[in-house]
Amino acid sequence: MSSAKSMPIYKKFVQEGIVKYKLHEFMEKISDKAGFHGVEISSTPIRDIITVYVESPGVMIGRGGRTSKRISDILKEELGIQNPYIQAKKVDKPFLSTRIVASYIARRIAKGERYKKVAYSALGRVMAEGAKGVEIRLSGKFGSQRAREERFREGVIYRCGQDYIENVEYAVKHVLMPQGMIGVRVRIVKPGVRGPDAVVIKEDEIERIRERIKSEMESLSESEVVEIPEELEGELEVAGEVKEDESEQAR
User: Fold this and answer.
1) Under the cellular component aspect of Gene Ontology, which terms does the record hold (predicted)?
2) 141-172 burial, b for 16+ CB within 10 Å, e for fewer?
3) 3-class secondary structure, 79
4) Residue 202 burial (C-beta neighbours within 10 Å; 0-12, 13-18, 19+)
5) Mean pLDDT for the chain?
6) Global pTM?
7) Roughly how many angstroms between the first and final C-alpha of the chain, as a whole number?
8) Over the stretch 162-214, which tens digit does the pLDDT of each residue have?
9) Secondary structure (3-state) at 4
């Protein structure tokens, strides 16, 4: 078997990708109660630093670091990471993360809470964080024999095109209930997104046009004002007197 140094570069990339995928899958499963958002791994000559982004870092680390120590031992055995160091970081706005929102809904449904109450609660908290739009879709059996899908929406949701690729975050979570599996799908449109139908008023451009019009009006000199010749002034006075006489006769 060839050593790691003589391994072709493409095989090394594939192997690293597999390790990252397994690490993400494992950390998502083990840190579900902490509100998992994502994981990053950076290798140094001394150790491999694994940064986990969660809603509650204290749950991830555990009392006295016991939970993180147990996770490190599992990573050594399962994924072959020789010297892992786990650190947990808190997500600034957890309810803008679709993974955290999906886990939040799944946990509360698993505890027996009504799905509509849970969905509307999550909907309000996501919009309160500043999201432009959110969609929650729950599918499964909700106390009936036949499965159905329930949708909860607020704000704007993009479903195709470049706006969907760049501005929409998507996550799926499943929760096993006595009546069967319930699927939770969450879409969130990031804050500060300006859609293609947005109207933008350019105040600077309007002010520039106003200043230009004002300067043009002020540049008009008195010489450009049309003056009435003296001959026409006399004719206009006679015409005015004739009109006055005709109005008096009409009276």
Assistant:
1) cytosolic small ribosomal subunit
2) ebeeeeeeeeebebebebeeeebeeebbeebe
3) coil
4) exposed
5) 80
6) 0.68
7) 124
8) 777 788 899 999 988 888 899 999 999 988 777 666 777 788 888 888 888 88
9) coil
